[in-house]
Amino acid sequence: MTDTKIAAKSNKLARGKKIAKKGGCYFFLAACAFIVLFPFYVAVVTSFKFPAEANNLDFTWWPTEFTFNGYKDVFTYRGGNTVEGPLILLGFLNTVWMILPRSLISTVLAGMAGYAYAKLRFRAKNGMFGFLMATMMVPGVITLIPSYLLFYHLGWLNTPLPVILPPLLGGTASVFFLRQYYMGVPSDMMDAASVDGLGYFGIYFRIMFPIAMPAFWAQFVLAFVGGYNEYLGPMLYLKNASLLTLQLALQQFSSSRQYTDPSAVMAAALCALVPTVALFIAAQKQFISGIVTSGLKL
Fold first, then answer.
1. What is the model's pTM?
2. 80 conformational bin, left if phi > 0, alpha if psi -120 to 50, beta if neither
3. Tens of pLDDT along 52-82?
């Protein structure tokens, strides 16, 4: 066998191994995608079924007859006539005006703290940062009763203040993430800006904040989704029907339909999922067109 034939055979084997490896990788990713997406498929299909078919133990992959009664029920449910308008819309609006400003402000303040821990020099910086990281080891349930007593004595119960104000200063995880991001930013930028006469706040808002925009978008999305899905805090502090958040509205709706109309419950869950999916799609564009740590655009 000539060298040319040996080389051709070797290249053919290498190409076959490469195709097989790539095919195995695609198969594994497809299997993972199926595992992740299958529950969503079940929810979507079930939301278009009639209650009798949805309650049937024999699962059907496709509705025998489509119906939008579940979605109609979601947007006509008023919670026993205790509130005006659909309960799910009231819960969504309450969630937005409670969580959106909180998420924006907490992300900016967490970025300022991360900037200080990463770039500024002050006494006990490492000790303070270590103590901050140690607070992540404390389960939130431990502070639940003291927090409830504190808000009770402050007269904040049945008001949105316990839901809005405590997380307003930023989460420890956000501070840590943004601090690590700022650690990768060259300090020469700060030195040049300082020579030009910028102070700490000027350097932060005119240089460091734009550079870390992708990280800020990521932390904002995480903060908003976390507040959007929060259930325990609003359940404890918001007893007024006009202050119900979306998760409380969903709980009230699902408890009234759980055993009689699971299709309506699935429809309510999907309606609640739409805003977070839309937010992720919008934020994804910012991730792509963001600014990297070197200050150069991708």
1. 0.82
2. left
3. 887 877 888 888 888 888 888 888 888 765 6
Residue with tokens 């025998």: 64
Residue 297, φ and ψ in degrees, nearest 5? -75, 150
210, 207, 164, 206: which is closest to 187 by C-alpha? 207
| Nearest by Cα to 226 from 179, 281, 279 | 279
What is the separation, in whole angstroms, between the first and last Cα of the chain?
Answer: 50
Check the CA dihedral 51-57-58-60 and report its sign: positive
Burial of 220 (0-12, 13-18, 19+ CB in 10 A): buried
pLDDT digits (tens, 9 = 90+) for 160-180: 999 998 888 878 888 988 888
